[in-house]
């Protein structure tokens, strides 16, 4: 049985690799066509190609569930078309054993995808973002441009830009008090010192009193702020580009500041549950191969896999976004379509075998 298990696993694995390469190739081509209009003197075609290539690891991790579904349909479908599955069943091999052999490579690539999401794609995504943000600049000085708003220690903070050393540029600090603005502090730059201490440079502070407005200026001033440089970086990134550990760290910071972290929780659970989602879709594929798609052509299987994958992805987005909108735990919203696929796959597999 070990040789048969390896044969089934290798068939599914090769089909998965072909599918994921096709998906990545299509994504590369479509993104290149869409983004080519952004090319200019500072953002060349070579820079665009770098951006797309740096984002491929994240795309790979994202495509793992759908590629698992279509790969299983193709791999086992090929065995069914050559009557090899029929021979295995006639030799007394149960469906669950075939399914177990097919799930092994999918579980492996799902865990690899999870590792890519944690260690590879956040770094490569950061590099892609840096290249994109440099496209309108003549020098690669800034790592964060376009400005970002933060809330810390009951203060609203706007940061115009930050360089790779953690130095901040164009800082504005708004201090509200009882629904009124108490003061506005502006600084040309800020440098991180240690712990929660920053140093503001070229400071101008406007203080609002009931009967007057005072403006104070200073060359340097200490600034105590709970935001650390790493939180600043995380605030400038999209939630789906963060690693699991980064997402947990930033969720903790947002909770400390009494800010909404549901979007980060949603993306965390989407990434975390991808291996389970892949296994659920494999069960659906197995029940289809032994059922309605047993005598279907390869094109029919691929088309069916694409439809099921799109339906699953849309359901995942729908329930996930709804959970955020109605203030429901995102983990439940993400789990609903996965649980439906798992239950459907198990029920259908029992009927087949």
UniProtKB/TrEMBL annotation:
Keywords: Cell membrane, Membrane, Transmembrane, Transmembrane helix. The chain crosses the membrane at residues 12-33, 63-83, 95-116, 268-290, 302-319, 331-349. The keyword Transmembrane helix applies. GO terms for cellular component: ATP-binding cassette (ABC) transporter complex. The keyword Cell wall biogenesis/degradation does not apply. It is found in: Cell membrane. It is a multi-pass membrane protein. One of its GO terms (biological process) is lipopolysaccharide transport. Belongs to the LptF/LptG family. Component of the lipopolysaccharide transport and assembly complex. The LptBFG transporter is composed of two ATP-binding proteins (LptB) and two transmembrane proteins (LptF and LptG). Part of the ABC transporter complex LptBFG involved in the translocation of lipopolysaccharide (LPS) from the inner membrane to the outer membrane. This is Permease YjgP/YjgQ family protein.
């Amino acid at each position: 049985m070990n040789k048969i298990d390896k044969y089934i696993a290798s068939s599914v694995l090769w089909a998965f690799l072909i599918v994921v390469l096709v998906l990545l190739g299509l994504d590369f081509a479509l993104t290149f066509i869409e983004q080519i209009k952004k090319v200019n003197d500072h953002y060349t075609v070579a820079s665009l190609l770098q951006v797309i290539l740096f984002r491929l690891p994240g795309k790979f991790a994202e495509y793992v569930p759908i590629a698992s579904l279509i790969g299983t349909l193709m791999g086992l479908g090929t065995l069914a078309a050559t009557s090899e599955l029929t021979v295995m069943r006639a030799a007394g091999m149960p469906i669950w054993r075939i399914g177990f052999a097919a799930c092994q490579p999918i579980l492996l690539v799902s865990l690899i995808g999870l590792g890519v999401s944690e260690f590879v794609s956040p770094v490569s995504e950061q590099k892609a973002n840096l290249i994109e943000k440099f496209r309108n600049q003549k020098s690669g000085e800034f790592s964060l441009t376009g400005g970002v708003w933060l809330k810390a220690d009951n203060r609203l903070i706007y940061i115009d830009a930050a360089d790779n050393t953690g130095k901040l540029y164009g800082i504005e600090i708004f201090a509200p008090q009882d629904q009124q603005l108490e003061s506005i502090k502006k600084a040309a730059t800020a440098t991180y010192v240690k712990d929660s201490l920053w140093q503001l440079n070229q400071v101008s502070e406007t203080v609002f009193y009931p009967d007057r407005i005072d403006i104070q200026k200073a060359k340097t001033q200490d600034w105590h702020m709970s935001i650390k440089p790493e939180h600043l970086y995380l605030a400038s990134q999209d939630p789906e580009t963060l690693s699991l550990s980064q997402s947990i760290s930033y969720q903790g910071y947002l909770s400390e500041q009494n800010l909404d972290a549901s979007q980060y929780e949603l993306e965390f659970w989407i990434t975390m549950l991808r291996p389970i989602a892949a296994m659920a879709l494999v069960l659906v594929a197995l029940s289809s191969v032994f059922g309605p798609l047993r005598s279907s052509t390869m094109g029919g299987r691929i088309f069916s896999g694409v439809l099921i994958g799109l339906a699953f992805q849309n359901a995942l987005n729908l329930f996930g976004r709804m959970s955020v909108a109605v203030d429901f735990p995102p983990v439940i919203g993400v789990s609903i379509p996965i649980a439906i696929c798992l239950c459907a796959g198990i029920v259908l597999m029992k009927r087949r075998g």
